[in-house]
Specification:
Elements lengths: L1 H17 L21 H6 L17 E5 L2 E2 L2 H12 L6 H8 L9 E5 L14 H13 L2 E2 L4 E3 L11 H5 L6 E3 L7 E9 L3 H12 L4 E9 L6
Parallel strand pairs: 1-8, 2-8, 3-4, 3-7, 7-8
Antiparallel strand pairs: 5-6
The structure holds zinc ion.
The site of zinc ion (ZN) has 8 residues, from helix 2.
């Protein structure tokens, strides 16, 4: 992975020295003090999801908190897809910053990412959830462990399954390491759709001894709400 990611980072750093900062979405020039990385027009186009305090019903009881700043639509969808598939790894800190207001309070959280099975990496060689989780942990100064939760079974074409089939995803597809024991765990992913993955991960974390789980994603699809 790392060679390409390091090359991208070095290249962006060099460009950054030569050019003024630009909007991550439309690439227009940004005012120097712009903290988010988006111009005011793009920021205004983001489909904000202003709901707080909602727990999607498929999440198990060990999950006490759920938060996502955006609906999975329009510019939010575009940014998530770029992060995932189009060399948009530099978008992770920006998206993590948008997540901050929806994260649980407290400084004792252990941040973990929804893991990918090693076979699923394919040509991509990175897991966007890990990039987001690492950025969230950095911004909030929280503990982060990249392999606290491991996927032991491949996803078996999740995207092509029906909703009912996806909800059958087993918590035994994931294994939590002993370091989650008695910890409050903040589980990070890019999108929340059926909630099947978050549910399976939360149950695996509970089985591993986690005291409490919070789920945070960049974007949310409200289909699962009653
Ligand atoms: Zn813009």
């Amino acid at each position: 992975m790392r060679v390409r990611a390091l090359f991208d980072k070095a290249w962006r750093h060099l460009l950054g020295l030569a050019l003024p900062p630009t909007c991550a979405a439309c690439e227009c020039a940004l005012p120097a003090a712009e903290p988010v990385g988006l111009c005011p027009d793009c920021y205004a186009k983001l489909p904000w999801w202003d709901v707080t305090g909602v727990l999607p019903p498929e999440l198990p009881k060990v999950v006490k908190c759920f938060g996502a700043p955006l609906l999975y639509d329009g510019l939010a969808r575009e940014l998530v897809l770029r992060l995932k598939f189009k060399d948009g790894t530099h978008l992770a800190p920006l998206l993590a910053r948008l997540m901050l207001p929806k994260l649980p309070k407290g400084d004792d959280w252990l941040v973990v990412a929804v893991p990918m099975h090693r076979r699923a990496f394919g040509g991509r060689m990175f897991n966007q959830a890990v990039l987001l989780a690492r950025a969230v942990a950095r911004l909030r100064r929280l503990d982060f462990h990249v392999d606290a939760l491991v996927r032991v079974k491949p996803s078996d074409g999740q995207a092509k399954r029906t909703r009912a089939q996806r909800l059958k995803l087993s918590s035994h597809d994931f294994v939590a390491k002993p370091l989650v024991r008695a910890r409050r765990v903040l589980l990070v992913d890019d999108i929340y759709t059926t909630g099947a993955t978050a549910r399976a991960c939360a149950l695996a974390l509970k089985r591993g001894g986690a005291a409490e789980v919070a789920v945070a994603t960049v974007a949310f699809t409200p289909a699962s709400l009653p």
